[in-house]
Design brief:
- The chain has a single domain, classed as ATP-grasp fold, B domain (D-amino Acid Aminotransferase, Chain A, domain 1, 2-Layer Sandwich), CATH 3.30.470.20.
- 32% of the residues lie in helices and 24% in strands.
- With 326 residues, the chain is an alpha+beta fold.
- Strand 10 and strand 11 form a beta hairpin.
- It is built from nine helices and 16 strands.
- The protein starts with a helix and ends in an 8-residue tail after the last helix.
- The longest helix is centred in the middle third of the chain and has 24 residues.
């Protein structure tokens, strides 16, 4: 399984960086997804953009296809736990979803003391902080160690180009971002999703380290999982069989997520401020290979790269016949 590196290098020249499908309605550009809203439905095109430290730092070949298809896999697997917005997947990079009103809080669950971003739990712990999003942390923990319990560590949902802000349950409620009842209902739902994701990852020889959930309310006020779920963008995955050795040797665990790109950026002096360094093709290809392996390990299925020019293919899949390009 996997994809030939020569193909990944070739695909570096034709990634999906931006879309333009005016026939679908007004384009709303997120960090990774371009959305088109019309009549209560949202067409989401998952691009190949990669966001690190809340900044778009480039594109990764085939990343959008991986995210879209892996999210669809998880949305189908978790429908028994809670409703989600997915209606159909007409193209490898496209999902048609229910239009929902997003909650202004992102629900982040963590099982390990790790991370390199300024909002990560290890970043805070290393600097001596022992109160994190309302949770008291004991002294003596080491980097990448399993936390004594699963922690819900919410953040604000920042606009594109801005940085997420760590908050506690109490702060979210006091600010009027969500009601106490809605926060607790969302916390229960996302905890169930995270526990299910951890169990499945363990079966597949992986560790689901942490993850971020976005939730919304549909037209009837029902709480719905939106955006993506358990992808290498929203989650950290480690290899289970090499974790203990890495921990004993003081090394970073081998990862299958965008942490690889974050670490490369950090090693080159970039953590979110100013202009990011250009990602070399070798870094882009390695990141793509890791995304693809994550897809294959999670689903147990071979990844099949979509053929054709992406603009032409997406237009054909959506029944659009204009010659405009992605």
């Amino acid at each position: 399984m996997g994809v030939d590196r020569a193909l990944l290098l070739e695909r570096c020249e034709r990634t999906i960086e931006r879309t333009d499908f005016p026939e679908l309605g007004e384009r709303v550009e997120g960090k990774v997804r371009d959305s088109y809203v019309r009549e209560g439905r949202r067409v989401m095109v998952t691009t190949d953009r990669i966001s690190c430290f809340d900044v778009i730092v480039g594109t990764i070949p085939l990343k959008g296809q991986v995210l879209n298809q892996l999210s669809a896999f998880w949305f189908e697997r978790t429908r028994s736990i809670g409703p989600n917005h997915l209606l159909e997947v007409p193209d490898p990079n496209v999902s048609v979803v229910r239009q929902c009103r997003p909650l202004p809080v992102e629900f982040v669950f963590r099982a390990y003391l790790t991370g390199v971003t300024p909002t990560s739990i290890w970043y805070a712990y290393e600097r001596g902080k022992r109160l994190y999003c309302g949770h008291k942390l004991p002294d003596g923990l080491q980097k990448h160690e399993r936390l004594p319990e699963l922690l819900l560590t919410p953040t604000t949902k920042a606009e594109k180009g801005a940085h997420d802000e760590l908050i506690s349950r109490e702060e979210a409620i006091e600010r009027g971002m969500v009601s106490e009842e809605l926060f607790d209902r969302a916390a229960q739902l996302t905890r169930s999703l995270f526990e299910a994701g951890m169990r499945w990852a363990d079966r597949q020889g992986m560790i689901l380290v942490d993850t971020k959930y976005e939730l919304g309310l549909d037209s009837e006020g029902e709480l719905v999982v939106i955006d993506e779920i358990h992808t290498p963008d929203s989650s950290r995955y480690w290899y289970r069989d090499t974790y203990e050795r890495a921990l004993s040797e003081g090394r970073d665990p081998e990862a299958l997520d965008k942490e690889y790109v974050r670490r490369w950026l950090a090693s080159n002096g970039y953590t979110g401020d100013g202009e990011p360094p250009k990602l070399p093709d070798e870094i882009r290809c390695e990141a793509a290979a890791r995304y693809i392996e994550a897809y294959e390990r999670v689903t147990g299925l071979p990844f099949e790269p979509a053929d054709d020019d992406p603009s032409t293919r997406i237009r054909r899949s959506l029944g659009l016949f204009s010659s405009k390009s992605v």
